Amino acid sequence: MRSIRRRILLLVLGLLSLSLPLISYKSYSDARHEIEELFDAELAQHARLLAGMVDREIRDDLRAALQASLDEAVASGSQGSTPGHAYEKKLAFVVIDDQGRALLRSASAPLAAVDRLLRGDTGTAAAAPAAGIALKTPTQGLAGYHDLLIDGEQWRVFLLHEAVDRHWVLVGERSDVRGELVAKVALQNLVPDLVGLPLVALLVWLAVGWGLRPLDRLVELIRSRDPDRLSPLVLEPIPAELEPVVAALNRLLLQITDLLGREKRFIAHAAHELRTPLAVLRIHAQNALQAPDDGDRENALHQLRAGVDRATRLVAQLLTLARLDPGGLSPEHQRMDLAAFARGELAELTPLALERHQELTLEAPDEADCRLEADPPAIGVLLQNLVGNAIQHTPEGGRVRVVLTPSPEAIELRVQDSGPGVAPERRTKVFERFFREGSSQGAGLGLSIVARIVELHGGGIALHDSPLGGLEVRVSLPQARPTTNATHTAAR
């Protein structure tokens, strides 16, 4: 689901759909319990009122007159002469003396059920006893509330024993009276919830839309920007939820600005550096074409080949630096033996040293463990640049020495030469791109590439005075997979 508003709406409505039935059921249960308590209290109150109306010493003629008046009142109500209620026939009462005679009863009094109750039978009601037939005398343990099934209808009755007159008063009502009231209460509580749910959905939809307006403003702010405009986003006031997003976007914009700035400077420097070698190649080619004899032509071609080699080296260094720059390919670390790897790389560079009559040596302990987690191609570029620079800056007949010193945490690689070295105040600049020291014919990228490789491996690089009289480049490579950034320093 791609819409945040729709997701929130469905989540809120889903929670309401789950919680409202539970709340309604709890309300229904509580209402039913309270209504049951109220009706039970009314049954007990009516029973006590009836017990007070019928005296033990009441004469039979007075009791008969009272019963006749009661029957006449019920009959007139049923004929519609006076306003009545549909629940009248669902209410009943009967007053019984200690001999089991019904002294007073309502027309709807279920005598058969009363007789079963007095006999301790709670089964289905039998036929009502004939008028004047005595009912079973109640026992003291029957007092209280009872549920009876009468003609397929459930009744709730209350039986009261009057201790002074020794009368038994039974008051009852059909359970559907209570059920209808509970249903009406539950319906009155449920209908507003059902009717209000669409209204709540609409209000939530509008509220979420209002709450997401800052996000819409942020989207519009980004959409209205020109591609070249990479300044930080300014959104006022900014909600707390959007603050991390805006901060991350501004950080990304600053990184992109910095990256584009570095790329522009790199392209400008590369174009500047390539312009001169290409111009020299063109001159050598032109000299070869215009040479008056074979000797001059051969000399021009040799110069042309040397220029092509320098241009090839420059392009290779530029490509290597571009690959190692942030955003390029990350090195693939694997377990490697640095001592054996260094011997192979120095074997390839030995012809360059022999051509200049230089001594190139490798010092590594035979029994020491020189294995580490590293990227072999990158380590190869590092060795070629360090040793190649040392050979180039060391005069003919000089010495270049590579020393490996392993330790439990890291392996230290030192490249020493007997050349002129680098002044201490200029050692921090040699790591800058396109910086040249002395009359070097290089592009000034070698140590920049080395520093980047060391950084990717989580190591450190520093410049020191060489015991051979020139410069010593000291590189520390951790044996485990790198977790921190490298540092490069210049020291004496």
Polypeptide structure, described:
This protein is of the alpha+beta class and 492 residues long. It has three domains: 4-183, Beta-Lactamase; 243-324, Signal transduction histidine kinase, dimerisation/phosphotransfer (DHp) domain (Helix Hairpins); 334-490, Heat Shock Protein 90 (2-Layer Sandwich). It is built from ten helices and 13 strands. It has helices spanning 4-53, 60-78, 111-118, 175-211, 213-223, 243-290, 294-324, 338-355, 376-393, 446-456, and strands at residues 91-96, 102-105, 144-150, 153-162, 167-174, 334-337, 359-363, 371-374, 399-406, 410-417, 460-465, 471-478, 487-490. Strands 7-9-10-12-11-13 form a six-stranded mixed β-sheet, covered by helices on one side. A five-stranded antiparallel β-sheet has the order 2-1-5-4-3, with helices on both faces. A two-stranded antiparallel ribbon has the order 6-8. β3 (144-150) and β4 form a beta hairpin. The longest helix is centred in the first third of the chain and has 50 residues, at 4-53. The protein is rod-shaped.
CATH architectural arrangement of the largest domain: 2-Layer Sandwich
Q: Largest beta sheet, briefly?
A: 6 strands, mixed
Give the overall average pLDDT: 75
Distance between the termini: 63 Å
Element order, helices and strands?
Answer: HHEEHEEEHHHHEHEEHEEHEEE
Number of helices: 10
In quaternary terms, these chains amount to single chain
Uncertain parts = 124-135
